[in-house]
Amino acid sequence: QGALRFVAKEDMPRGDSEKPRHFVVELKRINSVFAKSKKQYIEAQMEHANEEATLSKLRAQLASQHSYIHEDIHSLRRRNSELTEELKDLSLQVQECLSETVASLCSDLARLEGANILQGVILS
């Protein structure tokens, strides 16, 4: 208020008809508006800081999840490769079984039928 009264007293000799009281009222109004806007500014800064902290935390969580998913993808690919190889091996074993064992069994069946054992005929 002191500075404002000084300005008001300086303006009076120049023929300014405004009263010093008007300047004091205006200063109080400006101070109250400034205080409100300053408070809003500080609150906005605090909110922004909180949002930045939350965003930072979420980014860290996302990075951690990406890392975990990346590791998981690699382990799944390795396991898929292992299972593919195992499936190839089993497929080869089945093919060998079909080509060797089944052919051998069919040959034995034909020989046994020729020997009349399967027909129940016993030669004495």
UniProtKB/TrEMBL annotation:
<dbReference type="GO" id="GO:0070652">
    <property type="term" value="C:HAUS complex"/>
</dbReference>
<dbReference type="GO" id="GO:0072686">
    <property type="term" value="C:mitotic spindle"/>
</dbReference>
<dbReference type="InterPro" id="IPR026206">
    <property type="entry name" value="HAUS3"/>
</dbReference>
<dbReference type="GO" id="GO:0051225">
    <property type="term" value="P:spindle assembly"/>
</dbReference>
<feature type="coiled-coil region">
    <location>
        <begin position="41"/>
        <end position="100"/>
    </location>
</feature>
<dbReference type="GO" id="GO:0031023">
    <property type="term" value="P:microtubule organizing center organization"/>
</dbReference>
<keyword id="KW-0175">Coiled coil</keyword>
<dbReference type="GO" id="GO:0005815">
    <property type="term" value="C:microtubule organizing center"/>
</dbReference>
<protein>
    <submittedName>
        <fullName>Uncharacterized protein</fullName>
    </submittedName>
</protein>
